[in-house]
Amino acid sequence: MERFIASLEQARKVVGEEISAILRALSSVDADRSAALRIREIEGWLDQEIPRLRRRNQLIQEPDLLNDWAAGPGPPGLTPGPGGGGLTAFDERALTTRALATDEGERLAETLTALGHPAPYSLGDDHDRIFDRLADRRKDADFTAGFFATLGPQGAAAALRKLNHYGGESAKEHWKTMGEALATAVARRPRTLGPAWEPESLGKMQASGLGLMLGHGRFPSGWLTEVIRPRVRKSPGDEVLARWTADLNHFLSALANNPETARALFNDLSREDLRDLFSELNREVALYTNEHDAIAFDPEAEFGRMLAAGAGVFEKRSPGPEAVRFAFNVMTTMGDLRTRADFRDPEGQPMEVAKGARIFMSMLAGAYAAEMIEGANAGDANRTQDSAFEKTTALTAGLHPKFRLSPGDTYRFIKIFADSAERMKPFDAGMGRFSRHLMDEAGAKDRGAGIKHLGNTFASLGYVSGMQFAAANEVQGKMDEYDQKMRDRLFFLLGLGVDIVGFGIGELGAAALDASGKSLALDAADELVWLMISKSMSETIDSHKDIDGTRLDELKENNRLATLGREYWIFHELKRYGFSYPVPPNDPAFGQPPITGKDGNLLPFNELAKDPKALKNLADWLIRNGSGSGDDSTVGEAATRLNNAFGGAKDNTQTNPSPLG
Question: Are 69 and 87 in contact, with CB atoms under 8 Å apart?
């Protein structure tokens, strides 16, 4: 086939050269050329057939487009040979060739372009049918390449403007289809798309239209980086007053969907430039909400999602070096955003992070719990050092932070999302998940013979808890409302069916489903672990007492119960790490009232806390198991010391979360 095509190409060349020479000769003697011109038809026929032969040969040469020529019935269009195996006849009509797919895409684009304006508030059936067909073929490289090559960037932008203007329930779905189809074509058939879709050409488009066009889909990182990079720049002006251009805010959704590009664009910027750029983006997304546009994204949310995605928060695998670098950059700049500078105020003023972005910062902090724990630690040798993108040695077993955060940067980052209990939830879940890991690591090292490693772990967690409380107190001011929300949240989690005997996390019942039917078990359990550690039941559930006064009125009682409640939970957890109970909780000495259920296991603390006599029996049982003995190899004394380690560290950072600023 290749030799045959080569022969035809040579024949086409000869025909072209000879017919030109013949026509010139006839013209020179003023002879009739009409008969000779018919030879041009042969030339045209060859021009048409040679590309088709090339496509057919390419199809033959690509075995991935067909099943193996092997025994069995084979794919549709294949006629089995004798015995059902070996080489078989191939019916070309059974498969769409690349050329045909490209032609079909071109015709669909022409049909879309020819459609008139639909009625207001509805795209109409014709538009829906076109976009539905594109959706069905959005993974077909040849079809999508033909579609967008014919439509062109300006035509695609016009189609999106039409979607945005007329809206309708299907507009957002059609927008998504356009982005995913374009991503397929760019990734797999860039040559077919032609020069109009090259980054240099797209740079001439308006940012708003191009940003919508790229708002969905996974594009090749190199191509998308070239498209967006020219827009990551400062506008001309005085060095002091130079502003970052606002063009970039139109591409936040594209960067969130393609985090590799975000890393390539931002990771090499200095901390000062990155802070100024993020500050400008933060200002822009807070000003322009796009709330009246049918297919526009939420700028504040996409800003936060872009930052979290760049840090690898949504990736199933462990984040790579570039994602870790991005996380470090975000965690050391987002807490230090500034308003625009002017001659009177060259540094600007502190700026709050846009509300829609804050929960994504909570997700990021929860994903990088190791770095947050080390950054909050006021008891290690790193506490006076600045943040640095370098691995650091931690005293806590199982803690291997990928970079170092200063206490100041850690505290400022927590304050971003400490304005509500709802926004703290992702951080709480991440801390709970990682706390369990650290406790298991430390428990495995101590082996029930002491609490050297567990002591370091609980102190580390205490520092974070205190810093979190201090941040919430500073941001929210009035803590009564915050405590009520935390209490309500804990009641909700427990109501899912979590077994809280000993505050351990049991199985969630079948009712523990969200509206879509997705199990809430993992997130709820992780969040509950951190609430148990950092708040303790007695700090968050006070239904056992009738006190209607202020927090100051309750402080003494809450502190007493907090100590006992956390000690109770730690006591229960220590059994998982090799400690034993010399005196069982169902011993008759503690039976009036009992502190165990019918199964002999400890009652939940919120049940015990309803009865002062039960609390006294609990305290006596802890004492009988070593509490106060001075021997931390006993479960009672180990629980007391761990509780004290946690509480002391928490008080430290709660009082002074950022001693060096």
Answer: yes
